[in-house]
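A.,

Following up on our hallway conversation. Structure tokens first:
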């Protein structure tokens, strides 16, 4: 057994001065002096019973052979190197160096650093015991049982906070997904990952993109901000702030949300949304807007709440509470709207659940506007061709009422009855049948638009044909009626019972769909803190420790072993900063 003498060395670290003991040899095996390497150099070689063993300030080092430099208190360890700190850090390598003066270690060749929650493997590794940090810049891999495998070009492990910081070409591979990013802070105790820079998470059925985010690798939940997007194969989900739960296939988003249905060519927007992928369900509120994109004329639907459900081949959109639709030649309004995209049936429905003071009681029935025609009834069905996206027909059930203004504003043309059936051609209403208990008031004009008289009649059925400027009314099973001169037709008889002209409610643009909405107040999203660039591992304090560790009698050209593995760029940076500090400011000429 050979014992190295103690040496007192003062140096600055973590704002206090410590007195370090010299490296101690616990088991030496065979010991030889190596005069060729210089004075005070010893070579330790293991014997058949065990490896050479050193200790220093709570660290144990084993190897098959070691070269110890007494003057610098420095070890070169070869073959089957094992370094253990306390009961948490275990490092193995083919080769290692350790300085008792600086407490810096360097390892190379199949380096494996093990802590309770993860295993790091790399080719070269720097270990600073003062800062309790390990650092690699030659690509490394971290394996954690519950999280998968993380690789990066540059990485650092902060032992006190149990945190890895990965930089450049970061890839996390999990059985359920693969994550790629520029910067990743990973906490081994919690499995929490903080993502910075363009990031993609690719799973079997979805792809997530964000430029800043958080992911809980233990629970498979995430929170993403800044250009965040989730692609669900047939839907793309975007928003300012997004939450994701992989286990239940759920995602929610807040502020400036867009959900794009890539199969059915539709878009939904709002400021709060939820997607349940397993149920093929989308829920949107706060200025919710659904857009069915068509080549010439898209259809817009707005309500307090929008729900889109069903498989891609059979989507159903439900809009309820103050629902409205808009198209350049058609608009409508109802308490709720139900649209079946497979059959092309859109239902405008009124729910009799409000008090009489509410705007959408039975009095304010569902309503459609087509060109200059207003249609109301208890329920309205609008049928379109799902393939051509052209309007085909409509049915107004119970209390059907059709109103249009006279061409010269003399009054209102009106037809009412129990039911209305309308037919469309090129999205224009051209034929209307009013069935059962039909009544009509019509301002009849000649070819010169001179008023002939006002027709008020009752009939079992009325047919109305709309041909450009002409309207042909046919009374079937007429009960009674006659044409009155305008001067003789009483003012109080010019409107049928139930007349309700609602032109002021008609949406004439997409913006009009939101005219009844309360002011929008969006929550402020704090998000995640800005990325803090990785500080220099070889910082001023470390380089100063190395400088202080130089033997007093060392020659300028003599190699300092504690600094030989430090990148030259870091040393040059330190030298240049010192030069700048020493330079005196020059006086300017007057």
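Then the amino acids I'd put at each of the 590 positions:
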């Amino acid at each position: 057994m050979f014992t190295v003498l103690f040496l007192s060395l003062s140096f600055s670290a973590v704002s206090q001065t410590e007195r370090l003991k010299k490296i101690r040899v616990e088991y030496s095996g065979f010991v030889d002096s190596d005069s060729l390497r210089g004075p005070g150099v010893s070579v330790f070689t293991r014997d058949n019973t065990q490896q050479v063993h050193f200790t220093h300030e709570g660290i144990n080092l084993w190897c098959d052979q070691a070269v110890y430099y007494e003057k610098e208190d420095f070890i070169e360890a070869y073959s089957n190197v094992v370094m253990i700190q306390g009961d948490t850090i275990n490092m193995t390598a083919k080769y290692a160096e350790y300085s008792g003066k600086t407490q810096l270690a360097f390892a190379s060749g199949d380096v494996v650093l093990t802590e309770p929650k993860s295993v790091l493997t790399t080719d070269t590794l720097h270990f600073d015991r003062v800062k309790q940090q390990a650092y690699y810049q030659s690509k490394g891999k971290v394996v954690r049982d519950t999280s998968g495998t993380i690789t990066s070009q540059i990485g650092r492990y902060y032992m006190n906070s149990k945190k890895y910081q990965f930089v450049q070409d970061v890839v996390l591979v999990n059985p359920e997904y693969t994550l790629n990013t520029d910067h990743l802070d990973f906490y081994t105790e919690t499995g929490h990952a903080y993502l910075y820079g363009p990031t993609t998470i690719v799973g079997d059925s979805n792809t997530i993109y964000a430029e800043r985010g958080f992911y809980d690798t233990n629970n498979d939940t995430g929170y993403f901000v800044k250009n965040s997007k989730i692609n669900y194969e047939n839907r793309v989900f975007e928003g300012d702030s997004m939450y994701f739960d992989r286990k239940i296939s759920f995602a929610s988003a807040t502020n400036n949300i867009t959900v794009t249905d890539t199969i059915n060519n539709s878009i939904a927007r709002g400021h709060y949304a939820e997607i349940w992928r397993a149920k093929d369900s989308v829920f949107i509120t706060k200025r919710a807007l659904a857009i069915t994109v068509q080549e010439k004329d898209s259809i817009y639907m707005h309500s307090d709440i929008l729900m889109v459900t069903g498989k891609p081949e059979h989507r159903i959109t439900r809009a309820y509470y103050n629902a409205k639709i808009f198209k350049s030649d058609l608009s409508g309004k109802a308490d709720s709207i139900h649209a079946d995209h497979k059959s092309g049936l859109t239902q405008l429905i009124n729910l009799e659940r409000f008090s009489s003071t509410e705007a959408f009681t039975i009095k304010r029935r569902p309503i459609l506007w087509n060109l200059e025609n207003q249609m109301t009834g208890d329920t309205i069905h609008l049928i379109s061709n799902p393939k051509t996206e052209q309007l085909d027909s409509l049915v107004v059930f119970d209390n059907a009422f059709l109103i249009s203004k006279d061409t010269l504003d003399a009054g209102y043309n009106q037809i009412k009855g129990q039911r209305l059936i309308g037919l469309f051609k090129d999205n224009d209403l051209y034929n209307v049948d009013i069935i059962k208990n039909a009544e009509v008031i019509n301002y009849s004009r000649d070819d010169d638009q001179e008023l002939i008289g006002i027709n008020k009649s009752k009939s079992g059925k009325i047919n109305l044909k709309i041909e450009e400027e002409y309207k042909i009314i046919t009374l079937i099973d007429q009960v009674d009626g006659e044409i009155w001169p305008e001067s003789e037709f009483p003012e109080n008889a010019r409107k049928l019972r139930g007349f309700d002209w609602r032109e002021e409610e008609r949406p004439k643009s997409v913006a009009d769909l939101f005219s009844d909405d309360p002011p929008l107040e969006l929550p402020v999203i704090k998000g995640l803190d800005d990325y803090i660039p990785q500080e220099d591992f070889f910082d001023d304090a470390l380089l100063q420790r190395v400088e202080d560790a130089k033997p007093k009698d060392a020659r300028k050209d003599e190699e300092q072993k504690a600094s030989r593995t430090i990148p030259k760029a870091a040393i040059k940076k330190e030298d240049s900063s010192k030069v700048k500090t020493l330079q005196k400011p020059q006086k300017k000429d007057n």
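The domain at 19-138 is CATH 2.60.450.10 (lipopolysaccharide transport protein A fold). Curious whether your intuition agrees with the design.

B.
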